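FIELD: query
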Amino acid sequence: HKFMHWDKPILTDSGGFQIFSLGRDLRSGGIKNVSADTPKGPGSGARDDIQLISSKVSEEGVHFKTPIDGGVNHFMTPESAIEIQEALGSDIMMVLDECLPHGEDKDRTRESMELSLRWADRCLAARKSENALFGIVQGGMYKDLRGEYIEKLAKGFDGYSIGGLSVGEPNELMYDLTDHCTNFLPKDKPRYLMGVGTPEDLLECIDRGIDMFDCVMPSRNGRTGSMMTKNGDINVKNARFKEDPNPADADCTCYTCRNFSMAYIRHMFMCNEILGARLATIHNLHFYIDLIREIRSSIKEDGFLDFKQKFIQRRSSC
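FIELD: result
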C-alpha cells in the first residue's frame, strides 16, 4: 500500500489464472506466439504485446516460464501463492486454482476441479495472516460439477469467487451458471464474479446475487478510444468528432468531461499521444463507479429491477 501510495483495500489474484489463460495448452510446454484467434475478451487475460506462457501443471503446483524475463523457469505452489500475496499485504487474497478454457469435456473438467479443491485446502492451511482469503469455484460449464465443487469446498473462507467464466461462453450461459452458483453459495459471505464485465453484465449478475467484480474493460477500452456512456459506447476516433466541442457525456462529472472536448481527445488519439488513452480511461472508470453508486442507491430504495431495465434499454436503443 505504501509503495504505490494506495490507502484503500487491495485485492490480488493468485497468478494461476494468468498462467493458465496465457498458456492455452497447459500440459504441453513450448512458448507460442499470440495468434489472431487467441481469446482476448473481458477476463481473457490475453495481451497483444507478449507471447504465451509455457506451463505445466502437476499435483504439487505449476511450472511455468515467460519470455518477459528471458524464459526463466518458475514454480508456483498453493503455499507460495499465499506467501506472495501475504508479502504484498493484500487485503483480499485468492487461492491458486486451475482455470480451463471454454469447451473442455466433463472428464477433464472433473480432474481439474478436484485438483483445484485440493489446492484450495492447501492455500487455507498455508495462510498465516488475518487478511481475507477467498475460495474460487470451478467446474467449467457443468452445473452439477459447480454444485459439487461448492459442497466440497472448505467452509473457512472469508468469501467465494466464481472463476472459469467469461472465457468464451455465450453471455446467457454465463448468467445461468452464475445464478446456479449463487444459489449454493453462503448468503452471509461476499460473492465475487471474476473477470466480468460490461455494464450490462454487472447488472445481470448483481440481479443473480453477485457482490463483487473485476474487469480490465474500462482501461482496455479506453486505450482503444472507446468511451462508455449511458447512451451507449462512443468511439472517439470517429471522424464525426473531429470538431466536436462537447464532452463525451454532458451529464458526466469526471475530470475528462469537465475539462476536455471530444475533438481534443480525438486529436490526442490521432497523434498517438498517450494522454488520449488516459483521459478515456479516467472517464470509463468514473462511469463504472457512478454506475455502481446508482445500483446501490436503487437497491436501498427497492427499485433495482426498474433501474436495471431502464439502463439496459437506454444503452441498447441509442
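FIELD: remark
Residues 25-50 have pLDDT under 50 and may be disordered.
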